[in-house]
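wait is this the right file?? whatever heres the structure
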């Protein structure tokens, strides 16, 4: 189980409290729990949390120019991998709001596949979050198939 939390969650609850939640849940339910830093920007804060035991991070260097983004993220990858922590980064951004993260629609941009390939190769990240438009259109056939799937269980 992965508990992903943004900077505001860590600020509110504190890292030791969140680590305790995962340790307690793992001891009760007998399967691994992990904390994930989601959309963290502050390098020293990320490093402190990795040193405290976090092993999964999403570094948000999206608002820096491409070359600076690569520099920031690749340095974070080197540091994180010394602690066996995985690093996720993001290219492109969808407009809207998710918790305290707000992206104005005029600032949204989809991920360029060629830039994504270069980015992954140059940074050494473990995973890449991409911005891709997804529109769901519910057609009569979709509704029919959904009903068949739901009733077949």
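ok assuming it is, sequence goes like this
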């Amino acid at each position: 189980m992965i508990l992903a939390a943004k900077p505001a969650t860590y600020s509110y609850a504190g890292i030791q409290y969140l680590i305790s939640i995962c340790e307690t849940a793992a001891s009760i339910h007998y399967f691994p729990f992990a904390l994930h830093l989601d959309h963290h920007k502050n390098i020293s804060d990320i490093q402190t949390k990795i040193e405290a035991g976090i092993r999964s991070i999403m570094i948000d260097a999206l608002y820096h120019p491409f070359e600076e983004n690569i520099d920031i993220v690749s340095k974070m990858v080197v540091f994180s991998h010394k602690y066996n922590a995985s690093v996720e980064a993001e290219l492109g951004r969808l407009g809207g709001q998710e918790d305290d993260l707000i992206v104005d629609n005029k600032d949204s941009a989809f991920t360029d596949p060629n830039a994504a390939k270069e980015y992954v190769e140059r940074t050494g990240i473990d995973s890449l979050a991409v911005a891709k438009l997804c529109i769901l259109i519910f057609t009569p056939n979709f509704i029919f198939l959904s009903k068949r799937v739901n009733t077949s269980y």
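The first helix runs from residue 7 to 13. so i think its the right one actually
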